[in-house]
Amino acid sequence: MPVQPQSRRRSLVAIPAYNEAATIRDVVTRVRAYLSDCDLLVVNDGSFDDTAARLVGTDVIVAGHLCNLGYGRAIQTAVHYAERAGYDRLITLDADGQHDPAQVRALLAEFDSGRWDVLIGSRYAVTRRYGGVPLGRRLGMQLFSILVGMMAGRRIYDTTSGLRVIARQAFGPLTEWHFIDFHAEALVYLMRLGYRVGEFPITVEERRHGQSMYSMASLFKYPSKTFLMVLLGVVQAKLTERRRRGR
Amino acid sequence: MTPAGVLVGTAIGIVLLMWVVTLIWHDRLYVGYGVIFVFGTVVAMAVLIVPRLLRLVTAASAALLPVPALSLVALVILVFLMVYVFTQITILSNRVMRLTQELAIRNASPQTTVEQHAVDPRIQNSEF
User: Fold this and answer.
1) What is the pTM for the complete model shown?
2) Which one of A121, A191, A211, B51 is CB 3.0 to 4.6 Å from A163, fit for a cystine?
3) In A, which residues are within 8 Å of B117 by CB distance?
């Protein structure tokens, strides 16, 4: 069922939010200030704090999950929404205030060069080192960066960045195949299908409120799940390619 | 364990692995459950195939002999049954997820003065 777009704007900024009452209003205000030519969607992923109440009066579009589905599903909801409402590009950023909307302008300028189908705002594109990152996360980031390089032929240094610009042509594959968090597994799948995925350097601020979605348990479960989905994604991409050529 | 036992055990492990991976591929088994079965099966197969590991596990479990044949059959049935149960949970969970997403998309609206309520914490999920 098509969704009626809220305006004639062609870009949608989507912010997945789960219990981000402390920062969401400020993030929305800053996005409004720097990206006034974009529509703004907040996917409230079943927050049980005051996130929903903080959005009243902001005039942003809110898609509220009745229960918490997780980050990956919140992004998927945003992709579905953008696809049905006919937006040309989707910009995702985190609700914790770590991403500076002012930097999105430069990211969009690079994206508009037409060289990319997905452009990632990358914290490590320039340094290519993970200095200052806790050991567990650093190992995970290196592992997945290398894995993406091995499976897709090109390394992506920041596979877990929440700041991304996605072109309309990539909406289809992102809704047809199933992902966990739209990280390495999604990037490998898109790259194997021939989509152009790139990185653009950004800086992020320290998280001031709330908790990271990665806990100690994530050190084991996240890599194992992502690794398996990367492998399955490679096979699926190959089958999809074969089906396309057969038509 | 006899060579025939190792062969049968390995064959069961391969069938289980293929089934689990196919289910994950078709989004009928949540990958978080799937990796547990994959990991468990690979470890069990390694124990079966490497005699030293089998002896070590047997000694560690304080048993003088490997488990009786009937217990092993029961264990295999139980594992397959668990995969089936988790598959049903995943299918149901996927349906709820799609419904939740569809409702969110259809009801998406600009927040002007509409009062929004927080979700009751009791209906939160606990993702693996």
Assistant:
1) 0.85
2) A121
3) 52-53
* Residues whose CB is less than 8 angstroms from the CB of residue A144 and which lie 6 or more positions away in sequence, other chains included: A159, A160, A183, A184, A223, A226
Report CB contact under 8 Å: A229, B119: no
| Amino acid at site A238 | K
With an 8 Å Cβ cutoff, is A50 touching chain B?
yes
Cα(A97)–Cα(A111) distance, integer angstroms: 22
Q: Which residues contact A182 (CB under 8 A, 6 or more apart)?
A: A71, A72, A75, A76, A174
Model ipTM value: 0.85
Higher pLDDT, B56 or A17: A17
> Which residue among B118, B125, B128 places its CB closest to the CB of A221?
B128
Which residues in chain A have their CB less than 8 angstroms from residue B112's CB? 56-57, 59
Cα(A247)–Cα(A236) distance, integer angstroms: 17
Specify the DSSP element, H or E, that contains A91: strand A89-92
